């Protein structure tokens, strides 16, 4: 049994679902152990959507402060906003009586970490990806201890500070797996058909959405159904294809109950953000990963390699896919029961079910 915590933790986790959802997972575990949490999120609409349903947690919005290139006309404005964010964070830390600060990645974490360090508080960062992004390479300078999701991410942080492999925290709402047949009926899907779950992350993935929407006739003809989470930006563009092929599956813009989406999947196709990969591993879902080709430092390709190398997923470069070859490759894979079974077992081997607890253990031990 974990030791009780009587400490106050500030978690900076805004900007994307990949930062916010693991931050919420840590917050849930910290409060379950008796501690108090303040979550700092951005003013983006996606943060407001993703934080719905967590009224028992305290959220504070911070202005989004994305760092431009060093030689940029935007730099003076960035510095002014950053100084304002820094002093705002110091004030928040004081009023909350914070005992520690955890940054989950992105430049939303930078001002809180510097403010925490300036007040002498223990500071931590978490990096979910296989390689740290530009923001976390900066944030590491202001962290006492660095936490990572993958062993492969230890070396890129270099030496000089402790780096601990803890996995990527999973939202508590996803821990309990729902019965597949009942959940298919709840979605209005056919329990007799194979189901492909399509998700582009919290903000969608346009090319992935286009490939799936254009392939609906082929999926429908093969008796394969789709549950597609398009993201709010691409929903209207994808909708006509589903109206034309109503038996091909179901389209939703955003899913606040991912446990219901993951429960029905025989195969998933998605980007390779670390948070999505954590969820797929927990649910042991064979997957096709299509890394976002313009991700910083190509980190999504590196994430996908970890899962591809052990046979848990297949990594398909976006540039190799077209409306002509995408559906046939997906259909061939989902009809290969033996291969899907092997992929599922490999996925299971990559799951870290107690990642939230590991993060809390490190933070509570080092205060």
Shape summary: globular
Summarize the amount of helix as a percent range. Answer: 40-55%
Determine and state the CATH class of the largest domain. Alpha Beta
Radius of gyration: 21 Å
Number of separate structural domains: 2
Tell me the distance between the termini: 19 Å
What's the CATH topology label of the largest domain? Rossmann fold
**What is the percentage of strand-forming residues?**
15-25%
Unreliable stretches = none
Question: Could you tell me the number of beta strands?
Answer: 13
The overall average pLDDT, rounded, is 92
**Any guess at the CATH architecture of the largest domain?**
3-Layer(aba) Sandwich
The major β-sheet equals: 7 strands, parallel
CATH superfamily of the largest domain: Glycogen Phosphorylase B
What are the secondary-structure elements, in order, as H or E?
EHEHEHEHEHEEHEHHEHEHEHEHEHHH
The spatial strand order of the largest sheet comes to 3-2-1-4-5-6-7
Q: Kindly name the structural category.
A: alpha/beta
**How many individual helices?**
15
């Amino acid at each position: 049994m974990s030791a009780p915590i009587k400490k106050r933790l500030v978690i900076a986790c805004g900007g994307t679902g990949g930062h916010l959802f693991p931050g919420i997972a840590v917050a849930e575990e910290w409060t379950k152990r008796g501690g108090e949490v303040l979550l700092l999120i951005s003013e983006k609409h996606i943060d407001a959507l993703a934080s719905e349903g967590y009224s028992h947690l305290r959220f504070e919005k911070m202005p989004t402060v994305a760092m431009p290139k060093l030689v940029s006309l935007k730099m003076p404005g960035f510095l002014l906003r950053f100084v304002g964010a820094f002093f705002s964070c110091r004030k928040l830390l004081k009023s909350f009586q914070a005992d520690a600060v955890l940054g989950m990645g992105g430049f939303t974490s930078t001002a809180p970490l510097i403010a925490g360090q300036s007040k002498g508080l223990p500071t931590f960062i978490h990096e979910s990806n296989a390689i740290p992004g530009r923001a976390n390479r900066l944030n590491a300078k202001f962290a006492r201890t660095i936490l990572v999701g993958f062993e492969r991410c230890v070396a890129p942080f270099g030496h000089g500070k402790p780096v601990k492999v803890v996995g990527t925290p999973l939202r508590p709402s996803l821990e309990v797996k729902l019965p597949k047949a009942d959940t298919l009926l709840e979605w209005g899907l056919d329990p007799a058909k194979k189901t492909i779950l399509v998700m582009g992350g919290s903000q969608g993935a346009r090319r992935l959405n286009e490939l799936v929407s254009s392939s609906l006739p082929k999926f429908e003809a093969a008796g394969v159904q789709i549950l597609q989470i398009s993201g709010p930006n691409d929903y209207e563009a994808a909708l006509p294809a589903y109206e034309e092929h109503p038996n091909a599956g179901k389209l939703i813009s955003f899913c606040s109950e991912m446990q219901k989406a993951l429960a029905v999947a025989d195969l998933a196709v998605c980007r390779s953000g670390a948070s999505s990969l954590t969820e797929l591993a927990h649910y042991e879902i064979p997957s096709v990963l299509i890394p976002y080709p313009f991700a910083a430092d190509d980190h999504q390709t590196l994430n996908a390699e970890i899962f591809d190398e052990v046979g848990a997923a297949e990594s398909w470069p976006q540039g190799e896919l077209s409306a002509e070859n995408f559906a046939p490759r997906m259909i061939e894979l989902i009809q290969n029961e033996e291969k899907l079974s092997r992929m599922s077992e490999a996925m299971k081997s990559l799951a870290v079910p107690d990642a939230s607890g590991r993060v809390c253990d490190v933070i509570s031990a080092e205060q």
